[in-house]
């Protein structure tokens, strides 16, 4: 069986001409955001990528076929599947979704694998997975994927209900440089500061692109994490949000939510606890991250 990536013609043309492309994940669409805001968010992210001069490539598995860059019909399809019918895909179950011809949404880990196969360096999302609070052995495969797949993920750090110091330690072990774009902090999703430092603060897109080039030149198989704080006007007060999250983590433990169910449960729970502003901030930070990933992709394509 040879690999057949369905690369959207616009993405294919951009890659062939060495123009900037930005990959995006689909778990965000199927599991991270409610309908119909999930479609709006995906479209707005694609628009943000275009406005910064790059071509968007949202990645999903449709009936077992790997799609890199979705048509609006394909986006609508994946965004409207009934709950529980789309499998979240990372390294371990991507082949399963292909062999069973299922629909699959790629997590950060799954999207990185496919972006690499398609030749895409830059990838924009909201928050990566990490180490769960109180469950130090529940470590998202996003972190190990960053250690073994050379793709740059631009995100607002890790999802807010995770253990950020432990997440930083695992990334260090995995050989992943964490970059704060215009900040010293590993971004904590909804707020500006986390108290958890990145490895390096870089204020210029040029500097980030130069680092990625050097990593590529060395042929390293590890990726890079660029964290971007939520734009000022949408951020939440750090103490307030932390209290909401701490309560949510307790509720999760009390209800016995474990393992792969945690992320989806938390996202729903926090949306309820924080209210509509959380969803709005989430979409705004997604678009901001998409624009920054596109700017880096443009720089990289100029220096290629
Ligand atoms: N952000 C959200 N909702 C999500 C995710 C992120 O608001 O569902 C997804 C991302 O795709 C991320 C994944 O890669 O959760 C991590 O899940 P886990 O902890 O199960 O590895
Ligand atoms: Mn997990």
Task: Give descriptors for this structure.
alpha/beta; 304 residues; two-stranded antiparallel sheet; binds manganese (II) ion; eleven-stranded mixed beta sheet; binds pseudouridine-5'-monophosphate; 12 helices; Indigoidine synthase fold
Topology readout:
Layout: E1 5-7, H1 9-16, E2 21-24, H2 27-32, H3 37-51, E3 55-62, E4 65-68, H4 72-79, E5 87-89, H5 94-99, E6 104-106, H6 108-118, E7 122-124, E8 131-132, E9 135-139, H7 141-148, E10 152-155, H8 164-173, E11 177-181, E12 200-202, H9 205-218, E13 224-227, H10 238-255, H11 262-274, H12 276-302
Parallel strand pairs: 1-4, 2-3, 2-7, 5-6, 7-10, 10-13, 11-12, 11-13
Antiparallel strand pairs: 3-4, 3-6, 8-9
Helix pairs in contact: 3-12, 6-7, 7-8, 9-12, 10-11, 11-12
The structure holds pseudouridine-5'-monophosphate and manganese (II) ion.
Task: Give a written overview of the molecule.
By secondary structure, this protein is of the alpha/beta class. It has one domain (6-302): Indigoidine synthase fold, CATH 3.40.1790.10. It is built from twelve helices and 13 strands. Strands 1, 2, 3, 4, 5, 6, 7, 10, 11, 12 and 13 form an eleven-stranded mixed β-sheet that branches. A two-stranded antiparallel sheet has the order 8-9. Helix 5 links the parallel strand 5 (87-89) and strand 6. The longest helix is centred in the last third of the chain and has 27 residues, at 276-302. It is globular. 51% of the residues are buried. The mean pLDDT is 95. Bound molecules: pseudouridine-5'-monophosphate (PSU) and manganese (II) ion. Residues 138, 140, 259-260 line the site of manganese (II) ion.
């Amino acid at each position: 069986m040879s690999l057949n990536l369905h690369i959207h013609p616009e993405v294919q043309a951009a890659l062939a001409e060495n123009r900037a492309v930005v990959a995006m994940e689909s778990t965000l669409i199927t599991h991270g955001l409610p309908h119909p805001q999930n479609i709006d968010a995906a479209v707005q992210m694609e628009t943000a990528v275009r406005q910064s001069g790059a071509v968007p490539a949202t990645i999903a598995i449709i009936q077992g076929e790997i799609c890199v860059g979705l048509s609006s019909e394909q986006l609508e399809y994946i965004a409207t599947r009934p709950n529980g019918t789309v499998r979240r895909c990372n390294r371990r179950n991507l082949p399963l979704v292909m062999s069973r011809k299922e629909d699959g949404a790629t997590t950060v880990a799954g999207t990185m694998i496919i972006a690499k196969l398609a030749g895409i360096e830059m990838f924009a999302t909201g928050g990566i997975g990490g180490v769960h609070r109180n469950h130090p052995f529940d470590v998202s495969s996003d972190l190990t994927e960053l250690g073994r797949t050379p793709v740059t993920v631009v995100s607002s750090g890790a999802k807010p209900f995770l253990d950020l110091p432990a997440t930083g330690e695992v990334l260090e072990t995995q050989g992943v440089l964490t970059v704060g774009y215009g900040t010293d902090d590993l971004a904590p999703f909804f707020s500006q500061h986390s108290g958890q430092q990145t490895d390096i603060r870089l204020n210029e897109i040029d500097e980030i692109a130069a680092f990625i080039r050097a990593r590529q030149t060395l042929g390293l198989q590890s990726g890079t994490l660029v964290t971007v704080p939520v734009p000022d006007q949408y951020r939440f007060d750090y103490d307030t949000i932390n209290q909401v999250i701490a309560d949510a983590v307790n509720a999760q433990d009390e209800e016995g939510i474990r393992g792969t169910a945690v992320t989806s449960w938390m996202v729903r729970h926090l949306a309820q606890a924080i209210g509509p502003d959380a969803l709005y901030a989430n979409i705004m930070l997604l678009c901001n991250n998409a624009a920054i990933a596109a700017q880096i992709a443009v720089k990289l394509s100029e220096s290629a």
